[in-house]
Write a structure and sequence with these properties.
homodimer, alpha+beta, eight-stranded mixed sheet, five-stranded mixed sheet, 15 helices, elongated
């Protein structure tokens, strides 16, 4: 192809060069391992779908869907999230599933959003969902999964839990229609960013009555450990008919969480959590950094009992969580939490000339067969230059094998950490690495 | 969203349900491990590029590129292969690289090709390339990498090697222009499918002279072990001026391969291998099943010294190989070579009722912490039904913990293989699994 006239990347899209990519892969692997230990199985779906599958599913965000007409004039769209494809999969193949269906999916999604710091048009989501399970066990497992992932990644976290029923009770207490209630909740959801006063002012500006803003004020003041929150909610909302079952759930769930010795710092009831009221039907949760909640949610989810249906139209109770890798990664980077990686190259073989190529290849193959990453330098340039490159590549070991070594049937192994060199019998090379 | 009116998948696109996806992941992981042992580092690039980066790069196949105008009226295109993005990356960031740059990339590519058996519009490629390295070492490493992948996957393979220079010498011997030469080579490339007679007939139909078809006939008859092929080529082509250096390369390379004790069954010189004459500039290779070459190539590549340039326009000698996961997977499936997988669920916990939920969760967490995949069944339905599901999920162990066990502080561990049940002290549960 020769030189590309204008080599550039679309705004909101990213190249991942090896240094970053290796860390990303390590984070993805760590999350995958936890998903699998919780019994979630991997699934994948196409990056392109018939557009009608995706459109009308995302409300006003529909304008962010990458849709186009392909060469066969089919109206197609790029994957916008991993939930709608999950719904399609359950509808198409669910007849052969053993529910509950626990699947995870890790993949790119595309949104024609305004790109900005930490906001991409192509980004990776890592979702785990349980479909066809309305049990409290599923709710509990989702919270435990969330906690386990945070622990595995070494993040000081707090899972903040609320329920749709608590928010519905608040709306009923305020005497609002569902429509006005959604507006109210949308302001409450901004509590982390704009604070108590901000929420009240916004409600006032929207024309909510003094009676309503007073109730909301009391609601926002409910805080403390899980028992405190439950009794605070009870005090404010016990007069509301729908609150009775909401309270029973909170008490049962609180008891389970306490039984499992999950501390207040790890999991708290937070009445201000209010993600997607048009979406979630039960438990709602999000996870923030304990030391910096303002960074925003790094893992969130909830129960959605009306999104997914079988082929016959039966609604499948479901619960899921989603992790945006890009935000999580940025957070881990900024808190210096990226995992330690093993060296990209364990052993760097200095090249003393073409006459040794077969020897170098043989040595490399032997060390690769015991799991080491080995690079033979491509050209017999000056040793100092090759050493410099081995250093840049952070290879912990450098091997030297030239005329003297060949005659003696030894190889020189240099540790780049200690600077120490040792002669190893060529036939004992693997042993010498296995005992390191 | 409720029920999707027409749940369906675009032709040429695939859903991967867990059973297949787990095998795919195992194959991908195995290949990744080998790439990394050979010192290749992971890289990723966006699935969408500015269209001008991709267009004009694929000759007549350009019509297969998925291109469209996005919401900002940018002309964009979906990734068609992983090589052009590699070229873009080198051009944009190469100034900071230490060449040779060894990277691998595993990702989907999209081609608006006619879908058919084994031909998809969305498929996964796994590429490894060395950029900025014109050494014979790089050529050798690529063949060794290819061999190592086949060994790792348990495939009985044959790597078939040729060079651009041999084909150029044949064209010169036939006294053809480069243009007619490309036509000739295109027919030779069909040898596997249409045989010697087929190639000759096709050349006759294209109007090639008797002199040419006679030379090609002799060329196609060259076979046997590597030395035989080299001497056969020498006999036929030694009068051609360009053949001298081609012969020197073949002899040197043959010696290296022999030095490494690579058998004729594993790697052979095959003058009929002729992939992309507009692309490859040196070594060309492809790998077929030893027992069924007609299945086609499952790993192929070669040296391309003119595709990739730096920002200043310098051409970077490169060599790479590419594996199409979908074809490889289909092949492994049909030869019954898919790797053994560990169980998706190691331990299935029977649910005796909500009063034990916290216990089940605690038990599951303890076993997960020692690396086991654990599912707690969601509902306390009849034990026989839960056992049946554990069986369908192929869980090797089922745990039972109800009233009696709670009183005794034990748990019943049932091996689904032997049918044997044993009571284990609850506090010794991890030990009992660690010693299995």
């Amino acid at each position: 192809m020769g030189k590309i006239a204008q080599a550039r990347v679309l705004a909101g899209f990213q190249d991942f060069l090896p240094e970053k990519m290796r860390f990303r892969n390590a984070v993805i692997s760590a999350v995958k391992v936890v998903y699998e230990r919780f019994g979630f199985l991997p699934q994948d779906t196409p990056c392109l779908e018939y557009a009608d599958i995706l459109l009308d599913k995302y409300g006003e965000n529909q304008k962010l869907v990458y849709d186009f007409h392909d060469k066969g004039e089919r109206h197609v769209a790029m994957r916008y999230d991993l939930t709608v494809p999950l719904g399609r999969v359950v509808q198409m193949y669910g007849g052969a599933f053993n529910f509950p269906y626990r699947r995870y999916q890790i993949g790119m999604v595309w949104r024609a959003d305004k790109p900005g710091k930490g906001r991409y048009r192509e980004f990776m989501q890592m979702d785990a969902d349980i479909v066809g399970d309305n049990s409290m066990l599923a709710d509990l497992e989702m919270i435990l999964l969330n906690i386990e992932i945070m622990k595995t990644l070494g993040i000081r976290y707090r899972v903040r839990v609320n329920t749709r029923q608590v928010l519905d009770s608040l709306i009923e207490k305020c005497g609002l229609s569902q429509e006005k209630g959604v507006e109210l909740v949308r302001s409450i959801d901004k509590f982390d960013k704009i604070g108590r006063q901000g929420v009240i002012r916004e409600l006032e500006a929207q024309g909510f009555s003094l009676a309503v803003t007073e109730i909301v004020g009391e609601y926002l003041d409910i805080e403390g450990d899980r028992d405190n929150v439950v009794s605070g909610l009870e005090k404010l909302l016990s007069s509301v008919s729908s609150f009775k079952s909401a309270l029973a759930y909170l008490r049962d769930f609180s008891k389970l969480i306490a039984d499992l010795q999950i501390e207040r710092t790890q999991c708290i009831f937070d009445p201000t959590i209010a993600r997607g009221l048009d979406y979630y039907t039960g438990l709602i949760f999000e996870t923030t950094f304990l030391d910096d909640p303002a960074f925003g949610s790094i893992c969130s989810g909830g129960r959605y009992d009306r999104l997914i249906t079988t082929a016959s139209g039966e609604e499948m109770s479901s619960i899921g969580l989603s992790i945006g890798l890009d935000r999580l990664f940025a957070a881990m980077e900024s808190f210096d939490l990226l995992p330690a990686l093993r060296p990209a190259i364990d052993v760097f073989i200095i090249n003393f000339g073409d006459m040794y190529l077969a020897d170098y290849a043989r040595i490399a193959l032997r060390l690769r067969s015991i799991g080491l990453s080995v690079e033979i330098f491509s050209k017999p340039v000056k040793i100092a230059k090759q050493m410099k490159i081995a250093n840049i590549k952070k290879a912990p070991y450098v091997l030297m094998y030239g005329g003297d070594e060949a005659a003696e049937k030894v190889i020189v192994v240099k540790s780049m950490m200690s600077g120490k060199q040792e002669k190893v019998l060529l036939e004992r090379l693997e042993d010498s690495f296995l005992s390191k």
